[in-house]
Amino acid sequence: MGDAALQGARQWFADLDAAFAAEDAARAASLFGDESYWRDLASLTWNIHTAEGRGEIEAMLAAVGPDAWPRELEVTSATENDGVTEAWYTFRNKAFHGKGLVRLRDGKAWTLLSSAQGLNEFPEPSGPRRERGAEHGVNVSTENWLDRRNSRAGSFGIDEQPYVLVVGGGQGGIGLAARLKRLGVPALVIDKHPRPGDQWRSRYHSLCLHDPVWYDHMPYLPFPDHWPVFTPKDKMGDWLEHYTKIMELDYWSNTEAQSASFDDDAEQWTVRVVRDGRELTLTPTHLVMATGMSGIPSIPKLEGQDVFGGDQHHSSKHPGGAKYAGKKVVVVGSNNSAHDICADLWQNGAEPIMLQRSSTHIVKSDSLMEVVLGPLYSEEALANGIDHETADLIFASIPYKVLPDFQRPAFDEIRERDKDFYDSLEQTGFQLDFGDDDSGLFLKYLRRGSGYYINIGASELIAKGAIRLANGQIDRLEEDAVVLEDGTRLEADAVVYATGYGSMNGWAAKLISQEVADKVGKCWGLGSDTVRDPGPWQGELRNMWKPTQQENLWFHGGNLHQSRHYSKYLALQLKARLEGLETPVYALAETHHTR
Question: Which of 201, 317, 397, 553 could cross-link with 313 by S-S, CB 3.0 to 4.6 Å?
Fold first, then answer.
């Protein structure tokens, strides 16, 4: 680390500490630049919140009060590049010990991240605090570990109610449950599939993760260093099943939630479930919807769907291409699922037709890994001392307001680097974009959760005509064809609707009520006022991993990276409530959109 950078960072934190010692929020805020951001992950606000500008930072500090302000500030490293000093620091306040990253420009803070790493009073039982696992002596219990696990499996959810019920047993629900288990929070995961991991096993035959392994680790148990870069779906399913057993999670398979209601007076949920055909009632204090980042599948209502003679299904129900060998299949959509399904159909001897209805952002997988993800998630990053937990905090330290400026240069480089690739697609009539402001894939993902494809080969099939491309909107379906508004007739034996999903609060509407779903409002999106992400600006993802307008209802999801990282903060918020700590939520997000 550079001595000047370290000295400058230490002086800045000394000034911040002095302002806090004087209990002067205005003085602390004056240490921030004209453009400045303080992003807090639960440690000050009991929320996930970004204060933008000196005024908002002062207001946040004044509202949360001195007990929440970071103290015992210690700079652990600092570097300087292009006039910006980046410094890692640790801190404590009344509730948490934490870690953060600050960026200084001209002696003032530009961005500051504060993240809760653990509750002071309730540390996780790791390292020197691990359980002994065995009783030595003459007066030992006759029960062994297996006896205790079997006893708990038979009684938990029956004789003892969970404090937290997690609806959805995919990677998100499993990872959160592991965090809660370590913290001693009684949590039960329920899922409709027969086995953990079936969410992956049940997908189409050729599916692999599009994100690389360094980006996808689960909490506590990273993949071994021989794991493939792109995990095949069944391998991922097996990993999740074994992870569930290794982490000793309380997990009910073959269980589907039927209804839920909240008692305001008792501050408790009543959730009716069916497990292995038997109706049961659970009464958790907190309910977590861990259904990914997507809601109920969106299937357009089209004239003639009732007369079409072939198969019709949503991409989430696609059985694989083998069933359609020698048949014409129209795939409605042009994002990740549509590309994967078209490639799968072609590989199985079908004749896929991709119907593109709006422009799509495409990025080659290798380019994404090398240019965008590589500095944080790669073997090179590991060699530079950046493990995935460090990378998570670095990425989280970039406020969403300025993230487009961080991402745009990388995607400008990709556009130039892969010019021939993009030219070949455009020559087929494929409509390309790089997002509303040319900021690329991740901003599209954050803003709308759709509109992109990470190319692993389907784009080349489009460029050479193996996947036929059509453009336009559907007018109607006929018995053996999809007819577009311009009169184009696409003969079809089957139609696959790769048309995405609604907001996660759609699951709340289905399970609880439309009233509660509307009270919570739209999940996901930043309020960027771009396509499918209406304003006003939120500064954070709507309703994700933080308190919502419905008491004791939480939403957890995202890709593997987000589920891993943000499960920490959700678990800490739930643990604090279990232990009866005061958890005053600052800046509970307002609801502006219900869908």
Answer: 317
Closest CA to 523 of 574, 496, 562: 562
Give the 3-state DSSP-derived string for 59-73, with helices as H, strands as E and coil as C.
HHHHHHCHHHCCEEE
Evaluate whether 187 touches 163 at the Cβ level (below 8 Å): yes
- β-bridge mates for residue 77, sequence order: 88
Count of C-beta atoms within a 10 Å radius of residue 525: 22
Contact 479, 307 (CB under 8 A): yes
As a whole number of angstroms, the distance between CA 214 and CA 392 comes to 11
Rounded distance between C-alpha atoms, residue 287 and residue 512, angstroms = 11
Which pair of structure tokens corresponds to residue 84? 């910006």
Rounded distance between C-alpha atoms, residue 513 and residue 536, angstroms: 25
Instruction: Specify whether the CB–CB gap between 84 and 103 falls below 8 A.
Output: yes
Q: How far apart are CA 211 and CA 231, in angstroms?
A: 9
Q: What is the mean pLDDT of the chain?
A: 96
Residue 271 tokens, joined:
């959730």
For 172, other C-beta atoms within 10 Å of its C-beta total 28
Take residue 440 and report the two structure tokens written for it: 């690329």
Closest CA to 452 of 140, 216, 210, 96: 210
Residue pLDDT, tens place only, 34-43: 999 999 999 9
Overall residue count recorded for the chain in this entry: 595
- Whole-number Å distance between alpha carbons of 594 and 481: 35
E-assigned strand segments in 283-423: 286-289, 311-314, 328-332, 351-356, 361-364
Vertex 254: Cα angle to 248 and 258 (nearest 5):
115
> What CA–CA distance (Å, rounded) separates 238 from 351?
32
Query: How are the residues of the chain apportioned to helix, strand and coil, as percentages rounded to the nearest 5?
Result: 35, 25, 40
The answer to whether the peptide bond before residue 536 is cis (omega within 30 degrees of 0) is yes
Q: End-to-end alpha-carbon separation of the chain, Å?
A: 48
DSSP SS3 for 527: coil
Q: How many CB atoms lie within 10 A of CB 568?
A: 23
Residue 315 and residue 337: Cα distance in Å, rounded?
7
Q: In what order do the strands lie in the sheet with 278-282?
A: 255-263, 268-275, 278-282
pTM of this structure: 0.96
Q: Which residue is listed with tokens 């109607």? A: 476
Residues 486-520 have pLDDT tens digits of 999 999 999 999 999 999 999 999 999 999 999 99
In whole angstroms, what is the distance from residue 240 CA to residue 235 CA?
Answer: 9
How many other CB atoms are there within 10 angstroms of residue 158's CB atom?
A: 11
Position 1 scores a pLDDT of: 45
| DSSP secondary structure string for all residues of 243-291 | HHHHTT--EESSEEEEEEEEETTTTEEEEEEEETTEEEEE--SEEEE-S
- Phi and psi, residue 432, nearest 5°: -105, 150
| Rounded Cα gap, residues 117 and 365, in angstroms | 32
> What span, in angstroms and rounded, lies between the C-alpha atoms of 417 and 431?
19
Tell me which of 62-76, 141-155, 463-477 is least confident. 141-155
Q: What are phi and psi of 388, to 5 degrees?
A: -65, -30
